[in-house]
Design a protein that fits this description.
alpha/beta, UDP-n-acetylglucosamine1-carboxyvinyl-transferase, Chain, 2 domains, globular, four-stranded mixed beta sheet, single chain, 23 strands
Amino acid sequence: MTIMKLHFTGHPVKTIIEVPGDKSISHRAIMFAAIAHGKTTITNLLVGEDVLQTIRCFRQLGVDIQQSDEKVTVIGNGFHGLKEPRDVLYTGNSGTTTRLLFGLLASLPYTFTFTGDASLNNRPMKRITIPLTMMGATFIGRNNDQYLPMTIRGANLQAINYHMPVASAQVKSALIFAALQANGITTIYEKAPSRNHTEIMLQYFGGQLRRQGNEIIVEGQQSLLGKDIHVPGDFSSAAFFIVMAAISDGREVTIKNVGLNPTRTGLVEVLQQMNGKITITEPSIKNGERVGTIIVKASELQGTVIEGEIIPRLIDEIPIIALLATQCSGTTIIKDASELKVKESNRIDTVVTELRKLGADIEATDDGLIIRGKRPLTGGIVNSHGDHRIGMMLAIAATICKEEVILENPECISISYPSFFQDLNKCFLK
């Protein structure tokens, strides 16, 4: 087991950083480039372990992908340019790679076997396989076809009308990929809007998609053309520095070139509800995605209730929001977030366990958290549980702890933010 000792001192400083490319957009950029016809050049791609798993899988599927320090070049030959792999597709810890590939490959007349690491192999897949089975694909997996390792047999897919039981961008995206090659028109009904990077990128690559309220309508047998993409900075990575600045002793952090897709920025609204000082400047549009600069200052924060339709727009930020809430006056209640139980770890239980070690007053509910502030955090030994967002949350917690924090298993942070500790140290120059 590896450990990292964390103890931050130094005077408040104004810091300017740029976070790595957006993980969700990076995955999708590789995927759309692989199924498009022609050349796609991608700049600012996140070179994290999850995205590298996506690249490795597409190379196994016969796609020409070249990487350099400045860009990634993909030569796509359409859906039917993909080949049957000789070996198992290993997707590591990446649920996005696995679930989206299920939909993308379901229309091909081949057999594909997937496996991942111990964490991914215990994450449920039924929410993906049920609708794809309705379209005609076949899945055989562990424990009554619920878990990886899992084998897919592609088929000539038929369009369906599908009501999603849970708001999930991964499920929605898998179905959109499948619908692109299905016979007929597929309609997907969302309970609440989830991140829409797949819809935006599909249209950017020349695909057709319509949205009517909570209905997403996709025609089958589509063909896409290669495009150049610049990946904006990942808002979910920026979230850790947003919270760090808000709960700090007088610091100010400016984060440039951050993706500001409205389906991802629920944290901004929550911080504003809590009386946080956050400003967005320099707005622009790149590849159909909103981008801008975020400036955050230390704030006197108030507790709030977080529930309902905003939850899918901040689901990945709930661990860091829990830390934020420990430094708010009053009580913060998070509801409707049971989806956290099936992330890289059971994030509800893990957040409670680890923040309590540092002195937080926090408890789990069936679908969320109750956090009572304002509580000083002390220090101690904590564990990431192999979950990159838990690891980064605990490192940010260390910035306000009175004593040293020892973080076990910090290496998982490289999944989404390889330069995280380098950027964090910039905020504490002595």
